Amino acid sequence: MTIEIGVIGPHDLVDDVAAACEEQPGVTARRLHYDHESQAPAIVEAHAGQVEAWLFTGVVPYTLAREANSLNRPAVFVDYTGATLLQAAVRLLRAGHDITRMSIDTVTGADVATTFGEAGLPVDRVRSLPYRSGLRSDDVVAFHRRQHKSGADVAVTCISSVYEVLRHEMPAFRLAPSNHSVRTALRQLLLQVGSQAQEDAQIALGLANLSDGDDGLLKEVAGLGGTLARFAPDTYLIVTTRGPLHDATGGFTALPMLRRLADRHETVQIGFGLGRSAAEAENLARRALSRARRVGPTTAVLSLRGETDIVLESTTPPPAPSEVNLAVIAQRVGLSVPTLLRLREVRTSVGDEPLTSREVADQLRVQQRTARRMLHRLELAGLAERTGNLASGTSGRPLTLYRLTL
């Protein structure tokens, strides 16, 4: 069995990293270069269906892709500590640089101290800038410039765009991952792929309640790689596995087939259950279908172990604001009533002004990716609408603007 891995990074690193990966039997690498690390999320989205896993040449593009919610396959990045950092120190010494006086980005001070300490090198005049979310390449360049003015002999960077600026101003060295670091990352990735394969093989059962027979359902089930059987007079059993269902629902966020079936049937209620056995999956599918019936005539719900239900899709119009029952909405969107109350307070405070996921995250004191998931669920339920994009002010992609109608 051959596993194809997407290797993402700058032009000067991707080929070497990919070649190191292909030394592993059964691994092929798709080389995906970028000119600037901010392009990483778009590359992932453009090639998402073509690879089984992602290997990033560094933590920066990996973090940008992860924060953009672009990663729907196993993904790791090559670590630049240990062998990579020690290899760079040796090369800098041979080139005549004073490695006890240098500035280094992305790598933490603790990692530098550990690596240099094992080599017997002092670190009291080594300055580091660990990578963190929201750190821009301009910020990294400014850090190295300050350290150079303070006496740093050489700037060591893990970011290609930073190196392209610094190399014209001061002695600069570009960290490149060692083969040992690449092989270590690859082993970690292959373990994740194996675990994901087992998870994707988990059985998924669906119960579909349709008016007017099964018109169009068989074709949709074939798209899930599944089979269809009659379960009851107006209910059909869908048998598939987690992997195809995950892909068809965009990572369990939507179910496009529901809207297509709604064009043919007045009632389309689908409940999916994921379980470790057929019996467990069936029980969860029954629970999901029961909830779909409570939500509305055109609804799909996914039930997971641990009392977790996700409304994948519903074309039922939202109730008028004066009639809104937060307990019902909480069931529909999978959020708690206190969270919905806080979101309503945020909406009231801004009126008709749109909000970004970052602003919602700040108001609710949650991580930005959590806020994105909340807004996406509200959007699917008709309680938030996208109104455009706003430049993020960082190297990441623009932020989406939402207007809350909760």
UniProtKB/TrEMBL annotation:
<protein>
    <recommendedName>
        <fullName>HTH domain-containing protein</fullName>
    </recommendedName>
</protein>
<dbReference type="InterPro" id="IPR036388">
    <property type="entry name" value="WH-like_DNA-bd_sf"/>
</dbReference>
<dbReference type="InterPro" id="IPR043128">
    <property type="entry name" value="Rev_trsase/Diguanyl_cyclase"/>
</dbReference>
<dbReference type="InterPro" id="IPR036390">
    <property type="entry name" value="WH_DNA-bd_sf"/>
</dbReference>
